[in-house]
Predict the 3D structure of the following.
Amino acid sequence: MLSYISAVSLGFVLGFVRLVGAHPYTVHDTYIGGSFYNGFTAQAISDPTNGRVNYVDTPTAQGLNLTYASSDTFILRTDFTSFLDPNGPGRDSVRLISNNVYTTSVIVADIRHMPQGCATWPALWTVANPWPNLGEIDIIEGVNDQSPNQATLHTTPGCTQPANRAQTGKSVSNDCNTYVNNNVGCGVRSTLSNSYGPSFNSNGGGWYAMERTSSSITVWFWPRGSGPPSNVANGENFIDTSTWGEPMALFVNDSCDIASKFGPHNILINLTLCGTWAGQPSVYSSAGCPGSCVDHVNNNPSAFTNAYFEFASLRVYT
Ligand SMILES: *[C@@H]1O[C@H](CO)[C@@H](O)[C@H](O)[C@H]1NC(C)=O
Ligand SMILES: *[C@@H]1O[C@H](CO)[C@@H](O)[C@H](O)[C@H]1NC(C)=O
Ligand SMILES: *[C@@H]1O[C@H](CO)[C@@H](O)[C@H](O)[C@H]1NC(C)=O
C-alpha cells in the first residue's frame, strides 16, 4: 500500500515536472498561399538600409506580380525585367510586415526558395517599433549568396551571451548591444552550408523555427529531406519544442533580461539590394560579384530572376 501511494505521488511529481519542462503550443495563425495577404502588409517606405530598391505597397506588388499566391505557395520577389535610370528610384521590391504582433510564441516557416543573386540581402526577422528599444531578432539573414545563415539579436545596452551554449551553430559575437561593434549584434552562424542562398535553394529549402519564451530565444533549421520533427514537417496544430533537439542558435537569459529587452514583435520579410551591408564594396566584391553593386542592379534585370522567396507556409503558435 505504501509503495502504491509512493508510486502514485511519484507519478504526480514526474507529471508535474514534465508539464513544467514541456513547451507545448497551439497554432494561432496559419499563412498559406493567399492568406499571406490577410496577415501581412507591404510597406512602401524608403529602405532604412539605403538599398537600391523601391519598396511598393500591396496593390502595386500584386499588380506587378512581385507578390504571387496560389493555393499552396506564396512568392515575394524583386523586379527582374526593368533597366533602371541611374538617377531614378531603385529596383521595385517588397517588404512585408505582419499585422499581428507576438511575444511568447513560435514561428515556423516552411520555405522552398530564398532570394538568390549578387546584391541580394534578404531577411526574415521580428522587431518592435520604435527600434531598438524592444529588440530585433533576425532569423534568416545574409548577403550576396554567402552561406551559411546567421541568426542575430540586436538590443539596447546590457544584453550579452555566454560564449558556450547548447547550440549546433557557432557564436560569432556575443554582445547584443546595437550601439557597439557597428551594430553587428550577437550572432550565431549555422554550420550547414545549405542553410542559406543557392545551396539552400538547390536542396529545396527547409524549415526555420524561432521560439520566444520569457527567458530564451531559440532558432532551429532543418534542411529539406533531413527529417525534421513530424509536427513541423506536417504543419500540425500542436507542437512541443522540447522534443525538437539541439537548436542552431540558443540565446539565454543569464546576462540578458530577455523579457524586458524584447517586446511585442511584428514579423518582417524584406528583400533589399545593395545597401549598408550587401553593397559595402569590400563585402560585395569579396563575394565574387561583378562591378559595382548599384551598377549591377541598374543594368542587369535578368540577374534577379531568382531573387525571390517562396513560402510553403508560415505558422505562428502561442
Ligand atoms: C506571376 O508569378 C508567378 C510566380 O512566379 C508565375 O508563375 C506567373 O506566371 C506570373 N504571372 C505573370 C502574369 O507573369
Ligand atoms: C529590413 O529593414 C530593417 C530596417 O527597418 C533592417 O534592419 C534590416 O536589415 C532590413 N533587411 C533587409 C534585408 O532589408
Ligand atoms: C532573466 O535575467 C534577469 C537579469 O538579467 C532577471 O532579472 C530575470 O529574473 C531573469 N528571468 C528569468 C525568467 O530567468
User: Anything to note?
Assistant: DSSP finds nine helices and 19 strands in the chain.
